[in-house]
Amino acid sequence: xxxxHIRRRYWLAAILAGVALTLETxxxxxxxxxQLGTVEFSVSCNEAAQQKFNHAMALYHSFxxxxxxxxxxxxxxxxxxxxxxxxxxxMTLLGNxxxxxTGLSAEKLADVVSALDAARAAGLGSxxxxxxxxxxxxxxxxxxxxxHAHRMKGFNAAMADxxxxxxxxxxxxxxxxxxxxxxxxxxxxxxxxxxxxARILTPIFETNPQHPxxxxxxxxxxDYPPIAAEGLPxxxxxxxxxxxxxxxxxxxxxxxxxxxxxxxxxxANLESARVAGDATFDGHHASDYMVYxxxxxxxxxxxxxxxEASLGMKPIDNFGAAYAYAAMPARLALEREDWSAAAQLxxxxxxxxxxxxxxxxxxxxxxxARGIGAALSGxxxxxxxxxxxxxxxxxxxxxxxxxxxxxQIDIQAALVAALALCxxxxxxxxxxxxxxxxVREDATEKHAVTPGPIVPARELLADMLMRQGLPADAMxxxxxxxxxxxxxxxxxxGAMTAAHLIGEDAKARALAAELVELGSEADRRHTSLDxxxxxxxx
Length: 538
Prior knowledge:
The structure is a single chain. With about 550 residues, the protein is an all-alpha fold. It has helices at about 5-30, 45-60, 65-80, 85-95, 105-120, 125-140, 150-165, 170-180, 190-205, 210-220, 230-240, 245-250, 250-260, 260-275, 280-295, 300-310, 320-335, 340-345, 360-375, 380-400, 405-425, 425-440, 455-465, 470-485, 490-500, 505-520, 525-535. Helix 20 (about 380-400) packs antiparallel against helix 21 (about 405-425). The radius of gyration is 26 Å and the shape is globular. It starts with a helix and ends with a helix.
């Protein structure tokens, strides 16, 4: 068939446009075919938009933020009168409530306000949908003046009211439980809010085992040492519920880490990093968990390989990624007791190209590791320089309204300053200040961004007691660490050595047998494993 030149151009353009539309449709269909669990969240939108909305909420429940935002935008395109599409965008903009107020800048909160306005303008088809929107509005009301804690309390109450008003709306109940769990008090050792959320979520998990949010939020609710074992059923299920969500593959390792299930943690995070790739922070977050787990198995080379794979990816300007970048090299040096290497750690990515000034919580990890390395290398001056740097970073965290991290960085500064006293010969002052810092650390909980402390305060205290020839006192502190961080290699090795030195042979042999098993696949020679082998064999 002969096609005139000018008509041929339009014919070709039409063909290409059709191909592009087909490819776009196929891409959307492929995304919506992902295995993300089962979510049914009824909204007043057309049928196609309803299906897309369920898909978007499944992404939300696995904290897949960029994909969720794109999915909610697709809902709005499918049905411009679907106001709940904009509510979904508002919720996605807020991000992970377990790390709030991190990342909730005034600009982002203003964007949330705009999204809620768009929801109202597009149309909300029922009083229930209006209540969903107004519940989020409580959180961003007067955000320029009202502090985060006050607004979070109001949001949690508004979500509880929503769930009570619509008892047949399972999604309202699940999201209310999420906010209750996330609005915990880090000094509450009774875990009041977390256990309250778990009591709500557990029966839903039994009747709706394929819902991604229920398993996810149960893991978060039990992510604390005394209650972590209660989270194992959800941890074992979540990755099979949403195998195409990187965060769903990673989250079980929160429970595995709490229980010292290192091989399971490595397996979970290896798959999470593979699915995440280098497009989001998830791969770097998973890598930090892998590094930590490998080091507890004395697998230093495997830990280094996991770190290098992460640092070899495209740098991500993100709170969680920044922490991982600082934490992985710090862990590798400190867990191996390479004090000289720790004292000389540099920031990667290079500060000339990476915005470390935005992330004082992460840069503090580098300063903390360098301070420990300097002190344990015998350089009190360098240690005090890092303590002063930590004080500056603490002030930066306070200016950025990172309340949790202000206390954490201040504890780090106190620990480094105490170690400097040991170097300077003030052993009494050193031990006293280490004890005080340990009590402060015990009063808090670890942040969701980290698998565990860079070095537990009580472990440093125990190390110094050992150096001062007080193995009985040191053993008490090492055992306290193991109560909170089970199967932590350095604490087990320290407790075993201390028990051996004071003649508690049965305890030393029991710890040695556990350490031998823990290090059965070690990829380096370790003096603690040599001693463990001798004691276990004896």
